[in-house]
Design brief:
By secondary structure, this protein is of the alpha/beta class. It has a domain of about 180 residues: Spore Coat Polysaccharide Biosynthesis Protein SpsA, Chain A (Alpha-Beta Complex), CATH 3.90.550. Helix content is about 50%, strand content about 15%. Strand 2, helix 3 and strand 3 form a beta-alpha-beta unit. It is elongated. The termini are far apart.
């Protein structure tokens, strides 16, 4: 019976988290029309991204927004990245280029490059994306920056991945939706903890008032999540998840490259605020224990009660996650939730163990 009580407690904790996530899943989708079109600095940091820049600079320049500049940062590239930037700059005066050379103190640091780009930006309100991201529409800038106001200085957006065939693609997109479901829900609950650099906006006031990335400049990753974790509050943070405001990236195509990417991303979690580490850790632990204890409970206890708990938990999860997946245009993932979650839980466990014994991974 002790095993059954433990399993029931794990399911209870899981369900409490799903109820928390309902804050985003059932949030009404409403497009905000900005009362004023503020000038915007669109900032993109690129390292060896010549091919992506050829495709995406035209998409950024054709945005349906009256006043914006495009700040392109060449982060010590050794391909044709700088040449591509300069070629486009000759044709459009809105483009500003920051050419970053490797600095001995900040070798291969994206944060150092971004800092120089932010200093170059002439507008107070800044929108960030990556060189491999395409905007979902010509209204991306308009949609993503509409929530800016005197109080709302940080806007969390959604960075999706392109759909393709194969299990890895589904797993990557599932993890992306789950991450967004969490950071949107926590923000709605008044405890924002992260955002993604693929689609993020904030003001220069917020950046300079908090001394930029100085508190974590030596950490390879975290220009997005660590910065948001440090500066975000209930009062200054807004969400933008209209479909026109999405960005899309091409996901990794091999397990090895994806695992390396996730190792880099998850290495920053240990630097989050204690309350965020506790909440995120408890959610992961409850998921891990659920998948470990479910089969054990059904074998060692009368299977009917554990099975009922499993079904209740999975139905609630499917309902909450399904609403979020539909909102983020990922409905095809819903029927695969159990198998995708099972794989993700144990992949994350292997990454956690690996990260404890490995060095920091540079962003490129």
């Amino acid at each position: 019976m002790v095993l059954l009580y433990i399993f029931a407690a794990v399911v209870f904790v899981n369900c409490l988290y799903f109820l928390l996530f309902s804050k985003f899943s059932f949030l009404k989708l409403s497009e905000i029309e900005a009362s004023e079109k503020f000038p915007i600095s669109l900032i993109v940091c690129a390292k060896n991204e010549a091919e992506n820049l050829k495709k995406h600079i035209p998409l950024w320049l054709k945005q349906n927004y009256p006043d914006f500049e495009l700040v392109l940062i060449n982060d010590a590239s050794y391909d044709e990245t700088l040449d591509i930037m300069e070629a486009f700059a000759l044709t459009d005066s809105r483009i500003k280029i920051v050419d970053v050379e490797n600095n001995e103190a900040f070798w291969a640091s994206k944060k150092y490059a971004l800092t120089l780009g932010i200093k170059k930006a002439k507008h107070k309100r800044m929108l960030f994306t990556d060189a491999d991201c395409r905007p979902a529409s010509d209204d991306w800038i308009k949609e993503m920056t509409a929530p800016f106001s005197e109080t709302k200085q940080l806007i969390l957006g959604y960075g999706a991945y392109e759909k393709a065939s194969g299990f890895l693609n589904k797993l990557i997109r599932f993890e992306t939706v789950l991450t967004a479901l969490q950071y949107f829900s926590y923000a709605r609950a008044g405890i924002p903890y992260m955002g993604v650099g693929r689609n993020l906006a904030y003001t220069s006031n917020l950046y300079y008032d908090n001394k930029g990335f100085m508190s974590h400049m030596k950490v390879a990753s975290g220009d997005d999540d660590l910065f948001v974790n440090e500066v975000a509050s209930k009062e200054n943070t807004a969400l933008c998840f209209t479909e026109k405001a999405f960005t899309y990236s091409i996901p990794k195509k091999t397990w090895k490259s994806w695992i390396l990417q996730k190792k880099r991303h998850t290495s920053t979690a240990k630097l989050y605020k204690p309350i965020h580490r506790l909440l995120l850790g408890l959610f992961y632990l409850s998921n891990l224990l659920f998948w470990v204890l479910a089969p054990i409970a059904m074998i060692w206890v009368d299977w009917k009660i554990p099975l009922a708990l499993v079904l209740f938990r999975c139905v609630l999860q499917g309902f909450i996650f399904g609403k979020a997946a539909s909102k983020l245009r990922e409905k095809d993932l819903i029927i695969f939730i159990p198998i995708l979650e099972l794989f993700l839980v144990f992949v994350q466990l292997s990454i956690f163990i690996s990260n404890r014994n490995s060095k920091q991974v540079r962003w490129k």
